[in-house]
Design a protein that fits this description.
294 residues, four-stranded antiparallel sheet, 28 strands, 49% strand, globular
Length: 294
């Protein structure tokens, strides 16, 4: 769509009645109808929007390059920044864990502390950064109901129910996390070295120290299809599809790039309304078994 070509789309999330809201670099939030036209736009204080998250109250959180904005589509929105404890200049992910909202930023991870008489404030999650560092870049958050997993520039961290921090594996940046819907005991981690596998046991997540073959491509985002195929988005090399990823010894990897309809530049994969979608620098695309993303 012409209105999206110059906007710089970063994925999207679904709302009611088939509407999808897409964060953009240049034009705030765009609300798209099922057939594609832009229905509504929301400004974001002239800041790039890198992601969007819908909370259980129906509010939309815009992840900014410099804070957070929460939109209540029927009421005024609330802005969170340095004045409410969010010290970071870039928010890249948010997640709700055991009733508390967490934000991943380029400084650390933060948790929102509600207040009965004042505006809710964010506080930094302690213990993520090594003692020699004052900050640590956080890229992704995943709640499994018991623990909060945090992908950082220093590895994959687990925050227990008592607030303790344990690194499941260190020294390898983790950019995205995905728990398989086909096999909930399997967790995929998009790392700087490829897609790493973890398994769930009675004691929690265990690192298998195994990478999916054929995917050492600087993965940045992950999405799983209904048949269990794993889609992998990259910063500059198109997308990859790993078939039979639950059996690492028999994985088949397909590559899709400009010759299949994708533009140059980063591609972010996500799941929306039961299908995989592809956020690119020009627009959103979907996959057709031609096999050409369109």
């Amino acid at each position: 769509a012409p209105l999206l070509e110059a906007a710089g789309v970063h994925g999207g999330t679904g709302l009611r009645a088939g509407t999808i809201v897409t964060p953009t670099t240049a034009r705030g939030l765009r609300f798209l109808g099922r057939a594609g036209p832009v229905r509504r736009s929301l400004a974001a204080r002239d800041k790039p929007v890198t992601g969007v998250y819908r909370d259980r109250e129906g509010g939309l959180w815009a992840l900014l390059d410099g804070g957070l904005l929460r939109y209540d589509l029927g009421a005024p929105f609330t802005e969170h920044g340095t004045d409410t404890g969010l010290e970071a200049t870039g928010v890249v992910d948010v997640a709700r864990h055991r009733g508390t909202l967490y934000a991943a930023t380029n400084q650390s991870a933060y948790r929102l502390r509600p207040s009965d008489d004042t505006l809710a404030t964010f506080e930094r999650v302690r213990g993520l950064a090594p003692e020699s560092m004052t900050r640590i870049e956080c890229f992704t958050l995943l709640s499994d109901g018991r623990d909060l997993l945090v992908g950082t520039s220093n590895g994959l961290a687990r925050r227990g129910g008592d607030g303790s921090i344990e690194y499941l594996f260190p020294d390898v940046p983790v950019y995205d996390l995905l728990r398989s819907r086909v096999d909930s005991s399997r967790l995929y981690a998009a790392t700087a070295n490829g897609v790493r596998l973890l398994t769930r046991t009675e004691s929690g997540w265990t690192d298998t120290e195994t990478y999916l073959p054929g995917l050492s491509v600087k993965p940045r985002s992950l999405a799983e299809a209904d048949d269990g195929a794993l889609w992998v988005g990259t910063p500059h090399r198109g997308v990859y599809r790993a078939r039979s990823p639950l059996r690492p010894d028999s994985v088949v990897v397909d590559t899709f790039g400009t010759e299949h309809g994708l533009p140059d530049g980063p591609v972010r994969v996500a799941r929306w309304q039961g299908r995989t979608i592809f956020g690119t620098s020009t627009d959103l695309k979907r996959f057709r078994p031609s096999p050409t993303p369109r």
